[in-house]
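Hey L., structure's done. Input below.
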Amino acid sequence: MEIVEVGPRDGLQNEKTVLSTEVKLAYVRRALAAGVRRVEAVAFAHPARVPQMADAEAVVAGLPAVEGVSYIGLVLNERGLDRALADTVAGRLHEINYVLVATDEFSRRNQGMSTQESLAQWERIRVRAAAAGLRTTLTVAAAFGCPFTGEVPVERVAGLVAAAGSPDEICVADTIGVGVPGQVTELVAAVRQAAPDAALRAHFHNTRNTGYANAMAAVAAGVTALDASTGGIGGCPFAPAATGNIASEDLAYLLTRSGLLAGIDVAGLADTGTWIGARLGIDTPALLGRAGGFPPAM
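Output:
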């Protein structure tokens, strides 16, 4: 299994405190020191709408070059991809992640276009990104439920994935934390059938305390990468009551103790969760930093 650290992007984008570029880079460096090898470092979003990501280019320019580490930039539109491909950040990013929202209402609020318009835009972005040598991920947001229109049929998500060309990776995202394990099993199976050649990734929020159960269901269904944010911070600025991601340290503890993950300094991630909480001035949702690991260090 692989943990994709999304704290520097999805974690910080919904927090009230806007951190400095240097603190963001320190957050990334701490994740790397703990053994994380994929980091979603920035979103190329409009600074007025997501001020926490206004310094995306500066963050990317400061990312340490570490062998075996892959940095991801999230893009919402072609302007975002233009920024990701610009000379100031070229060579530092290895992957782009495009968000396709499963429902029209949420898509319009998130990206100012319908889902079908976003799907057409994704194809242009996919082709350009691949030509630039970047790995491509398509994240289907609100795949488990929409805050504005309610339930999202599995067939809706599978149909979007089937129409999405050939991304290197498909990520199904429970953007508002409404999914349950049985739903995860069904949805992952449908996505696998719709895109048999793509790697599978999942993104869960713990809004209703189902995030970790959903993560284990995803693993059992064949997902090989899970998003998480150190400290369990985060959410979506455009989704009401979208609380934090599952916490990297809590997930790493769960996966490591289950024999599914190796090479991660779980205690180091827990220390980082406490550290980022102090910089944001919040008590983070993550639990491992409070309870400690097991067996306890002697």
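The chain is about 40% helix and 15% strand. The chain has one domain: 2-291.

-- N.
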